[in-house]
Design goal:
This protein is an alpha/beta fold. The chain folds into two domains: 2-167 and 337-369, Quinone Oxidoreductase, Chain A, domain 1, CATH 3.90.180; 170-315, Rossmann fold, CATH 3.40.50. 25% of the residues lie in helices and 26% in strands. It has eleven helices and 18 strands. Strands 3, 5, 6, 9, 10, 17 and 18 form a seven-stranded mixed beta sheet that branches. Strands 13-12-11-14-15-16 form a six-stranded parallel beta sheet, sandwiched between helices.
């Protein structure tokens, strides 16, 4: 069948909108008609070459859609089911899956290759060139074929143009605070960077009962919006020293937990968050740095003498099959904001404008809507 998709042919910083050929799902695979996909900074790393991939490739990993067809052996879903797609299709058998961290499944190593689990491709150009799908899902496409292990069925009453955010930015941010950050009631939390992930770290910290949630960014309107998501204090790092302000707000102690959710992390970003963290506190790094970056501004002696921690997290350390439905229940109950995250919607043809808006700080989250 034919599908229209946004394709990267290299680190060109430009998506090409093309008609591609898409194969039917094989055993253990599902064909999904996409309804909505969030525009995430992580995919942009392939557009810049900060993180290499096999090109050409269709990025996109924050998707929601409706099952169109299932391959042989698939019993978990059926045509008509509403689903989210997860960018790590857990095997359920490796050490990481069996110890409760399926987002670190060994299958994740295949994400940038673009082939399906059997090593073959489902997309190709009209002249026969194989096209990869990032994370085996490639959600910047009208239709996609994905492993059933990457499919999470959800209730049909949840609007898919909002639910798609629960495929990435919501669990990544909420999980960074509640799971990896282990925020406890009464703690002080500082979040650096207020994009889609950062705003969810703010509401994740608030949901966990933080007494102060300090939001740090350089865009005034985002700082104002952060208060709607639970921020109690805001700092514009263009005008104020965030470390000093956080120390002032905590009587010189520092934040219990700091969370770095900047979309393009530089070594000094981690250093700033680290200095704002109290003794024996935890700094959680969520945003991606370029693959070539091999250091961060953290004094090693401090780690020992002050007992601080710097930890990373992928996908907020969530379990998609458990936590996606849980987050949607919070949304249904009015305790988790999704609608307010969507600043702008785009057609697939407008995806380059969507990324320009993201890079220039004009959106919390942009969402591609498919016809």
């Amino acid at each position: 069948m034919k599908t229209k998709a946004a394709v990267l042919h290299g680190p060109t910083k430009v998506f090409s909108i093309e008609e591609l050929e898409l194969d039917e799902p094989k055993a253990g695979e599902v064909l999904v008609k996409m309804v909505a996909t969030g525009i995430c900074h992580s995919d942009w790393h392939f557009a810049t070459g900060d993180h290499p991939a096999r090109y050409p490739i269709v990025p996109g990993h924050e998707g929601a859609g409706i099952v169109e067809q299932v391959g042989p052996g698939v019993t978990e879903v059926q045509p008509g089911d509403h689903v989210l797609l997860t960018f790590i299709p857990p095997c359920g058998k490796c050490r990481w899956c069996l110890t409760g961290i399926p987002v670190l499944c060994d299958r994740g190593a295949q994400a940038t290759i673009g082939a399906q689990l059997d090593g073959t491709f489902r997309l190709r150009t009209t002249d026969g060139q194989e096209v990869g799908q990032f994370a085996m899902i490639g959600c910047f496409s009208q239709y996609t074929v994905a492993p059933v292990d990457a499919i999470v069925k959800i209730d049909p009453d949840i609007p898919l143009d909002k639910a798609c955010l629960v495929s990435c930015c919501v669990p990544t941010g909420v999980g960074a605070a509640a799971k990896r950050g282990e925020v406890r009631a009464g703690e002080v939390v500082a979040v650096f960077g207020l994009g889609g992930v950062g705003m969810n770290a703010v509401q994740g910290a608030a949901l966990a009962g933080a007494s102060k949630v300090i939001a740090v960014d350089v865009v005034d309107w985002k700082l104002e919006a952060a208060q709607e998501f639970g921020a109690t204090h805001t700092i514009n790092a263009k005008y104020d020293d965030p470390v000093q302000r956080i120390l002032d707000l905590t009587n010189g102690v520092g934040a219990d937990k700091t969370i770095v959710t900047i979309g393009h992390v530089e070594p000094e970003h981690i250093g700033i968050a680290y200095r704002a963290t109290r003794k024996a506190g935890r700094c959680v790094v969520v945003g991606l740095a370029p693959i070539a970056t091999d250091s961060m501004k953290v004094p090693p002696a401090d780690l020992v003498l002050l007992g601080k921690e710097v930890v990373g997290t992928l996908y907020g350390h969530v379990n998609p099959r458990v936590d996606f439905p849980y987050l949607l229940q919070l949304y249904r109950a009015g305790r988790l904001k999704l609608d307010e995250l969507v600043t702008q919607t785009y057609s697939l043809d407008q995806i380059n404008q969507g990324y320009q808006d993201l890079l220039e700080g004009r959106v919390i989250r942009g969402v591609v809507l498919f016809e």
